[in-house]
Design brief:
heterodimer, A: about 400 residues, 17 helices, globular, disordered N terminus, B: about 425 residues, seven-stranded parallel sheet, three-stranded antiparallel sheet, 16 helices
Amino acid sequence: MAGVATQASLESAPRIMRLVAECSRSRARAGELRLPHGTVATPVFMPVGTQATMKGITTEQLDALGCRICLGNTYHLGLRPGPELIQKANGLHGFMNWPHNLLTDSGGFQMVSLVSLSEVTEEGVRFRSPYDGSETLLSPEKSVQIQNALGSDIIMQLDDVVSSTVTGPRVEEAMYRSIRWLDRCIAAHQRPDKQNLFAIIQGGLDADLRATCLEEMTKRDVPGFAIGGLSGGESKSQFWRMVALSTSRLPKDKPRYLMGVGYATDLVVCVALGCDMFDCVFPTRTARFGSALVPTGNLQLRKKVFEKDFSPINPECTCPTCQRHSRAFLHALLHSDNTAALHHLTVHNIAYQLQLMSAVRTSIVEKRFPDFVRDFMGTMYGDPTLCPTWATDALASVGITLG
Amino acid sequence: MKLSLTKVVNGCRLGKIKNLGKTRDHTMDIPGCLLYTKTGCAPHLTHHTLRNIHGVPAMAQLTLSSLAEQHEVLTEYKEGVGKFIGMPESLLYCSLHDPVSPCPAGYVTNKSVSVWSVAGRVEMTVSKFMAIQQALQPDWFQCLSDGEVSCKEAASIKRVRKSVDRSLLFLDNCLRLQEESEVLQKSVIIGVIEGGDVMEERLRSARETAKRPVGGFLLDGFQGNPTTLETRLCLLSSVTAELPEDKPRLISGIGRPDEVLKCIERGVDLFESFFPYQVTERGGALTFSFDYQLNPEEILLQQNGTQEEIKYVDQIKKMEITGCNREITSFEINLKEKMFQEDFNPLVRGCSCYCCKNHTRAYIHHLLVTNELLAGVLLMMHNFEHYFGFFHSIREALKNDKLAQLKELIHRQAS
């Protein structure tokens, strides 16, 4: 009897995605995510605020930039300050005072990024803390439990993540285990009405494994799917093929979240391939290294060439940094010990990503996405035909030609 | 520019400086402070977060040590440092040194003074100094001066005398160059009173500087630790007695609330606001009360919460003195301490700053423990607002004849 009851509740998983427009050539879609803390327009880029903070900018600044969903990380927050404290603080929203949506990663990625500190078994991932050497076991149940305490609007299953450069039986093992862990996460999830649990498709760079994973996971009626295990060290040629395979087999009426993708070109191509949601530390991290994102790439503002450049980072950008400051001033500030330099760039880079996604969305709604892509590539590479091969191939596969 | 005094109470001057700036339509209240900046930007703060702060002073302090290197850039820019740094609406005062960084001694000569930037030493003769000011175009600037005596222990009388002579010579040369420059005439030179700890020299410096057409006076060399200030307070009174009433008196290196009050009582008008920055850098939040209307118990409640917490805090304060950070004052709490881990109160109850209205002590503690940049941003916003509020309360107390109450309140907290 218990099995039947579980079946019913699975089938009533909320439909959180509303499609507003679809590109008639490519797989690009514009939509709206209905989440507990408000609506989010898609395609969407989600900035990463790992430890309950968006790296030096206030929640008010983030809100003013138009951000309506950002990320927190279960592994980090689970260690410091811990789920009990966050629960006392009215969840992660209350703790960091963020009124809009939050998505928490499960801790799975840290299995790769902190591989020397982790050990995977069927039970879960055993981590050794870099702070005090103590050991924690992050199981599917524990990850969901922490995320339940954090109260994020979208929570991720704990998946068995292997680096995309790994080959052999480990990839298959991780794929099947991720399915089993998905079921354990679903069973452990205490708040399906308040928090949306997404599955994460694994399978590495093996088309068969990925197809199997897609077939199995789509049998589970979760509110959304993420495409995982990519955006590591794999070649771009393999990368796009796995993304395209995944989107071709994922249901149309649920959001597709491509994890770890953040470079502008990748975002535009993967929207064409049918992805709706993206996250990446790149824009915020590169800001802290003095790099400002622009339609033609990036500006390394610490370089001497900007010393007397009195124009803003991007004259077309509407962000507070570009409204008030010149490259020359930012150059000077970056060479000082005032952290404000980093914050100016963080604001700009987030604005860049959000403005890009907004422009992409508008072009889909206005039925001119393929033209937008051509313009974008032209600006970025000097000529659409100078776009990297993988991107040209990927776009061609969904009917967009660049030359 | 015109300084009008509303009243003088116990040596404290309450008033306004009007017709300030190039457009001559800015006003500053005295006693007051200037906004501390590093390389032309409030520490940790962008325009957005700075704008969140209530009571930001009309005049910001820039330091030549952080901007001297921008000489060439600013010369090419032509439009002045205010616009360059994105603060075109603010009044600007350019000091020689950064009050936070000590200046290494041995670099002042009869012809030049050096400032220390991130990249190294920048040596300035009078003409180079004035050329830099011509590129900066600040509203006020500290004249080139020999302030080295305060960097050294027990300077000889000969050295002290030299500091006064040199500073006067620099001043006369700078005034002469100012007369020859239309651009520089739009800026006001602040004369610098030197003289170390030698009364005779202090008086000479004050009298001679006062003879020159400067717009105001900087009382240099009074910074140090609390004990050194005590011994210098008498010097300070004597110096200000020699200065004209209708020109502002600035002092450098004084930031602690109790010291600020002592200097105001001795005729000082304007202070820097580096103190809240120093508190921020050690993970501290200013919590001292300046609300002289409240009774002592209400004050403690505002700072610390319930009765139980008050007792706990007293215990902690006793332990704190033996702690590692000897610079921590009794005007602040240190958010790195474990006791704040689960404290969901704001930094200061009743504080209307962005940080207190939006965040808790527990959150700030978390940000500090995890080394997150936002800690500095939020603490700076609170500490600046708190400090500016303190100066506002001084002016209110003077207006309402409640200075004695405020003084007593502050000194009670200066353990």
